[in-house]
Recover the amino acids of this structure.
């Protein structure tokens, strides 16, 4: 047997990001200003984000957006990443399907998040910004941005969701090793945080809350910008390097995916692997390709949320986003896939879901760890709890092929490794993890007043 | 600036390992049987090790030993590894030196240890072995062997040094995720462990003790072999893929190293990067190249040990090895670089040191973490505490060049990443780490009776 790993050269690192909106017939509805209730313009966004990110956020026409040399140079630290045929897994499952994964775990911080962190830090630096701030769930995004900020000489403060701050101390240490300041969220350092702590002293935090805190800090600090690791269009844009590389690599493998799968929190890695392949579906060349977002059953916005304008954060500081949402006050269970604990699906993905270009499945926590352990033993790589949702969904597809006898080609994104999530595995092996059910009543509680926001 | 990273193709993964002994004028003295006091033959070793490993251990004549296809195929999971010019570090140090590092941290378990784990597991499988056992210090070797054992369908029991078992629970979890059994050493499961626990109930373990336990288990279990991650000749042999790749990559860079540096515990990663370059010194082509082993000041066998026949383990089960040693009863301080807490230098390295082909330096714990933090911030990769010894030594060399103005080319091996060692970094940032001094009296205590062993 010769292991099938498909490697590109550095010159194959994409020269431009792919802007999927340019090819969508139904564009997402506009982002709305939370006070004026008017569609957002670049000048509304640019006090908060870098000007370049603000422009990218609202760019609905340009198909390709050039990647600056400084960004591509940093991509060279670990890109291009390998595409691997998971033959060990196929053999174990005894499936006729071919399973491929794009290995984004090889970055020095262990996940795909660096793809956008580098771009955003670069634009901030170029525009003369000195300080940046962000939120992080499991810590993957915060770790990536810490490295990028240090590289470009920016000071960084990270609000880290309290449950992860306590459950994943290693990721906190990683951020500190790169020189970032890390604050457990909710914190007493912001109005938004103080209110939440006062209302609910045992609250374990959420991405929505941490975003509120970071946004508040950015708005009240001179020469400070806010940087987001998912959800928004410009983040999805930066992540398309994943799928653009994978497209070339699938060509090397002589196959084209029948189904493309990624885990889904705010959409960054899903967009990254899916959009470049999706463009061939949008233009009618590949109408049959399926795209599957694998979300946690405990935070099922795409499968069970409502489509409404909603805030991106808990406190209501951000623009209003047209999206599938569980409500910005939805508090997801404390699953170990901290990066997927986000209430909304973002504007692009939600529109694509409405138009049936993509599907979503929800996966229970215990199924993700079962899939993760199997993958580690078959393929040698211990996956992040987030990425394990994609693995579980890929295994489901492969097992369906076993029943039908179909030789489908399945591609999933391994968004990160789990070497810093071993306490979660420990708990799984100790039978100390559980599944979580979200009832229609839970969802109704946090979505019932959403239509009144606008 | 264009980042200088030198990548090879899969076809450049070496076809054969390099056996340095074949080129040594003064061969190491033979391994001695602990009971008969006679030089060891293959049949003395093969009850304990696989036959292939036993033959490789005593092979002093063949220069190149073919790498089996099954082993090369598994190498493809992550090999070839990149060679990187550390321009960020050079710039920070403001040195005229060129610093390169071979990045062995990209393996799925985060270190170079897989290079030998795969080979040894393969040979055991091929010879019909069903169970294997080993020891591990920080857990890098144990994690690597767990993956390799699972791949080849072998049951594995790992004795993990107690201090690391407690300090580095993530590495224990990694081994368990791959399906291995992990036992804290000293344990009550072996005679050797029981004796040590009885004599010294608070003993935190050492590699020497863990080796005793693993050897005892292997000798008393049917169809079970012992597998070692360092010190012995065949392990050094397997690691030469590192230096063989690096040699081609330095050619791509258009330079040849003036000094080759690696951290030193039992010699596996040092041998791996050094021996392929050393062959050009042994044959007179490159007489000026320096080779520097960077060992911890708390375990200074090459810089301050005695050259004697000594056991490889605490209990005296292993063959007697002619080497620089601190005595098999030497108990190193509880530094975080657990993989370097070994009392002896191995036969090949010790002979090369006697013959002045290689040098050694000892590095204090605080200096290693200072170097590690600087490296992380300049190059983006958080190094393992072990590898940080090599970084500290490389920085010393680069700073000497700054004084003299010499444009030396420095190559070091980044043997592993530190993402699973973040508690150590936490303690460093909290000023909770210390240096350790070893006095001549300490060393005299554990070396005074060594000459009586033979």
């Amino acid at each position: 047997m010769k292991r099938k790993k498909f490697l590109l050269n550095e010159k194959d690192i994409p020269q431009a990001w792919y802007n999927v909106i340019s090819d969508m017939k139904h564009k997402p509805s506009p982002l709305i200003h939370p006070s004026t209730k008017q569609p957002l313009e670049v000048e509304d966004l640019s006090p908060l984000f870098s000007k370049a990110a603000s422009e990218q956020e609202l760019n609905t026409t340009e198909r390709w957006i050039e990647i600056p040399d400084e960004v591509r140079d940093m991509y060279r630290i670990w890109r291009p990443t390998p595409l691997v045929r998971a033959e060990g897994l196929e053999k174990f499952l005894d499936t006729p399907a071919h399973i491929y994964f794009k290995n984004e775990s090889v970055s020095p911080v262990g996940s795909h998040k660096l793809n956008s962190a580098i771009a955003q830090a670069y634009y901030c630096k170029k525009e003369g910004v000195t300080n940046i701030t962000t939120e992080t769930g499991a810590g993957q995004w915060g770790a990536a941005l810490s490295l990028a900020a240090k590289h470009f000489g920016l000071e960084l403060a990270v609000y880290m969701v309290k449950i992860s701050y306590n459950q994943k101390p290693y990721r906190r240490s990683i951020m500190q090793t790169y020189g970032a300041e890390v604050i457990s969220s909710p914190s007493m350092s912001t109005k938004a945080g103080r209110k939440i702590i006062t209302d609910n002293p045992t609250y374990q935090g959420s991405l929505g809350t941490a975003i509120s805190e970071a946004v508040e800090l950015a708005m009240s600090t001179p020469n400070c910008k806010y940087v987001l690791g998912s959800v928004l269009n410009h983040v999805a844009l930066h992540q398309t390097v994943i799928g653009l590389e994978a497209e070339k690599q699938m060509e090397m493998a002589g196959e084209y995916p029948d189904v493309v799968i990624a885990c889904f929190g705010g959409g960054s890695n899903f967009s990254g692997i899916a959009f470049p392949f999706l463009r061939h579906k949008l233009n009618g060349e590949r109408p049959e390709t399926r795209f599957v977002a694998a979300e946690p059953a405990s935070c099922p916005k795409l499968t069970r949320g409502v489509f409404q304008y909603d805030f991106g954060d808990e406190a209501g500081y951000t623009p209003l986003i047209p999206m599938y949402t569980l409500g910005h006050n939805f508090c997801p269970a404390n699953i170990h896939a901290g990066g997927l604990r986000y209430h909304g699906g973002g504007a692009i993905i939600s529109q694509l879901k409405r138009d049936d270009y993509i599907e979503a499945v929800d996966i229970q926590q215990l199924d993700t760890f079962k899939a993760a352990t199997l993958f580690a033993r078959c393929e040698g790589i211990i996956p992040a709890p987030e990425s394990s949702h994609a693995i579980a969904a890929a295994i489901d597809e492969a097992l369906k092929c076993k029943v039908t006898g179909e030789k489908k080609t399945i591609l999933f994104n391994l968004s990160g490794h789990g070497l810093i999530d071993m306490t979660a595995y420990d708990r799984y092996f100790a039978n100390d993890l559980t599944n979580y059910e979200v009832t229609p009543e839970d969802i109704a509680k946090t979505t019932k007043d959403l239509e009144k926001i606008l």
Notes: The interface with chain B takes residues 1-3, 5, 7, 9-10, 73-74, 76-77, 88, 106, 108, 110, 147, 150-151, 169-170, 173-174, 176-179, 373, 376-377, 380-382, 417, 419-420, 422-423, 425-426, 429 of chain A (CB under 8 Å). The first helix of chain A runs from residue 42 to 45. Chain A has a mean pLDDT of 96.
